[in-house]
Amino acid sequence: MVPAIQNSMKPFRDMDYSRIIERLLKLAVPNHLIWLIFFYWFFHSSMNVVAELMRFGDREFYRDWWNSETVTYFWQNWNIPVHKWCIRHFYKPMMRRGVPRWAAQTAVFFASAFFHEYLVSVPLKMFRLWAFMGMMSQVCRITTTPFLLCVDLFS
């Protein structure tokens, strides 16, 4: 994978868009496999070992996020401990204070986007806002996905 990444740098420097698309597609499969291996190692193996050592009874670390039809369902099911923490410490206190549901959801995404950016930019020592913007773009997808599910585009 390292040679493929190194070969991808020149098209990005030259802004050769056809080569950039080709390189991104070439990196998509290995990137996806690495992501799935990390997910299995972290959420299924490591967290269960830690739960066993600490005699932690609740072993639900993820649900069926791979069956997601909506962005909301994905974010609610792929990382259960973080989802529960965000609900408990961000979402429910805002709802109790009378904040509208959409504003509370956006604030939770904003906080999550901030921490995702922090976790990416600090180890890589570069601050680019890519993770933050990627997370915040999910808010638009959350609002539009239910409308798209009601429309059958191919019939």
List keywords for this structure.
globular, mainly alpha, 155 residues, 6 helices, 0% strand
Helix content class:
over 70%
Question: How many domains is the backbone divided into?
Answer: 2
Say how many strands there are.
0
Order of helices and strands, N to C? HHHHHH
| Overall residue-averaged pLDDT value | 88
Q: pLDDT under 50 segments (min length 5)?
A: none
C-alpha Rg, in Å? 19 Å
Ends distance: 41 Å
Shape: globular
Major sheet size, sense and barrel closure: none
Number of helices: 6
**What is the structural class?**
mainly alpha
Describe the protein:
- The chain has 155 residues and is mainly α.
- It has six helices and no strands.
- α1 packs across α2.
- The chain is globular and about 50 Å long.
In short, what is this structure?
It is built from six helices and no strands. The chain has 155 residues and is mainly α.
Task: Set down the secondary structure blueprint.
Elements: H1 2-14, H2 17-53, H3 71-77, H4 80-96, H5 101-124, H6 130-150
